[in-house]
Amino acid sequence: xxxxxxxxxxxxxxxxxxxxxxxxxxxxxxxxxxxxxxxxxxxxxxxxxxxxxxxxxxxxxxxxxxxxxxxxxxxxxxxxxxxxxxxxxxxxxxxxxxxxxxxxxxxxxxxxxxxxxxxxxxxxxxxxxxxxxxxxxxxxxxxxxxxxxxxxxxxxxxxxxxxxxxxxxxxxxxxxxxxxxxxxxxxxxxxxxxxxxxxxxxxxxxxxxxxxxxxxxxxxxxxxxxxxxxxxxxxxxxxxxxxxxxxxxxxxxxxxxxxxxxxxxxxxxxxxxxxxxxxxxxxxxxxxxxxxxxxxxxxxxxxxxxxxxxxxxxxxxxxxxxxxxxxxxxxxxxxxxxxxxxxxxxxxxxxxxxxxxxxxxxxxxxxxxxxxxxxxxxxxxxxxxxxxxxxxxxxxxxxxxxxxxxxxxxxxxxxxxxxxxxxxxxxxxxxxxxxxxxxxxxxxxxxxxxxxxxxxxxxxxxxxxxxxxxxxxxxxxxxxxxxxxxxxxxxxxxxxxxxxxxxxxxxxxxxxxxxxxxxxxxxxxxxxxxxxxxxxxxxxxxxxxxxxxxxxxxxxxxxxxxxxxxxxxxxxxxxxxxxxxxxxxxxxxxxxxxxxxxxxxxxxxxxxxxxx
Length: 612
Known about the structure:
The chain is an alpha+beta fold. Helices cover 37% and strands 16% of the residues. The chain is globular and about 70 Å long. The termini are far apart. Residues 606-612 have low confidence and may be disordered.
């Protein structure tokens, strides 16, 4: 074994959010997370029915077709994962009670041998037919593990181990290539995480077996990546494979084998270059296609998985640009997916169109026992709460601050002390940010690593009034000192306008960004056909930006031609139509994807977009 790697990880226990994001997050927690189980009892009831020996086709919960049965395997685990991440974002007693209750329900559903799925005895984990319960065990054990990590719930941890061990026994000396490999191979990621928790060699052996042997039969993502192939060229390019690919992260952390890191890095960049849409969303019709302009649903589940892979890449690479991508997806695609009322989430959050609930889009997954659940709704809490996993990270020498919107982030220093970083300002409305150190028991010397976004071309930092030099966009600025309570860091970023000049079916169109925010034309704010509204670069770079709270949005930008644009996260509500590919003539030529210049950073201008 090569040398194990000490990577960054999140120790965030409370983000103390305020402002617009806090309203969405806490509103969703109250509207959905706290009572989802009451309205949808079959997410655990169907598992209990299987424990009692029932045939899922005869379930009292109305699982009338194989699609409904397969999807039921994942619902409870996805939902628990989301509650865990939400709890790390806003740890309320009510969320704690909701998570503990779901764990108890799952405990009642778990068979004596550890099985936690919806299938009858004799047809479990691929014994007779192509089932998705390996995928279900991945999600439920992952959710239990995350709940243990944020609350210390030992029962949840033991249940996760029992579910994983059930899969281990099933596949001992056998292949996992039993059908539905796009989903079932994800169990390798769980095994890697459990090795990190337990140091039990059986989990490492099984994770490496999946990656080095079973992947060769289907997927072959590591070898393809090392050979320079893009993800969309794989024989299994669906979004679910990102969960399987995440196994490379703990394997690199455990073993230090460079091929694990290089493969994951290549795959992450492959998505950035060939498949990530202007909204930050991933997939077209649920798969990588190699065309970010392609038609087809940009599924919320896909975006959640894309964020998960991005977090793993960030942990390995400490690449500040990875945070730009995480922020792009979170502030735009994921926040936009929350529909009116904050309870439901969309299945498809398109580049141009409107936002409808996943319940409307995925009616075929309706069942009377879980009338509100589908694959995307099960991921709703994770979509809102996964920011807690990348907002701040710590390694053995540095604390990395990645999230600049108003917050009070409780986390851990490299020396293991509790610390709170109070983040003040109104980012991303403006680029003026204050960071105040609080909560330390004693001073501690470490690097506070501040992310400088790649789109911010002119930047200023001061520590307790003393100017800091040598600041570079797209990198971390490390500030080493003996930090103590009351220390204040002032950061000024340039919220430059930048552009993505369209090609393919969007030739002649342009997407416009202000800092991390994609701007949209919305029919509630624009009279007449949206596609007929035209912009010059002067119209755009002369915009005045204001808080949009009085208009039901995050921010609104009054362009010089009199047209109002709004943030993408607020677009499409109340069934309004919107477009993000604008009829804007900016005098720019398309750039083609590459690591040096991502396509959405075209035309950066240090003086544009600062009026507020």
